[in-house]
Amino acid sequence: MPKAPLPKDFLWGFATASYQIEGAPHEDGRADSIWDVFCRIPGKIADASSGDVACDSYHRTHEDIALLKECKAKAYRFSLSWSRIIPLGGRNDPVNEKGLQYYVQLVDDLHAAGIEPMITLFHWDLPAELDRRYGGLLNKEEFVKDYENYARVVFKAMGSKVKYWITYNEPWCSSILGYSTGLFAPGHTSDRTKSAIGDSSREPWIVGHNLLIAHGAAVKAYRDDFKEKDGGQIGITLNGDWVEPWDADDPADVEACDRKIEFAICWFGDPIYLGKYPDSMRKQLGDRLPQFTEEEIALVKGSNDFYGMNHYCANYIKHKDGPAEPEDFAGNLEMLMENKAGESIGPETQSVWLRPYPTGFRKLMKWLSDRYGGPVIYVTENGTSVKGENDLPLDELLQDDFRCEYFRGYIGALADARSKDGVDVRGYMAWSLMDNFEWAEGYETRFGVTYVDYNGGQKRHPKKSAKAIADIFDGLMEKE
Ligand code: GBH
Question: What does this protein do (predicted)?
Answer without folding.
Answer: Plays an important role in cellulose degradation. Shows hydrolytic activity against several glycosidic compounds.
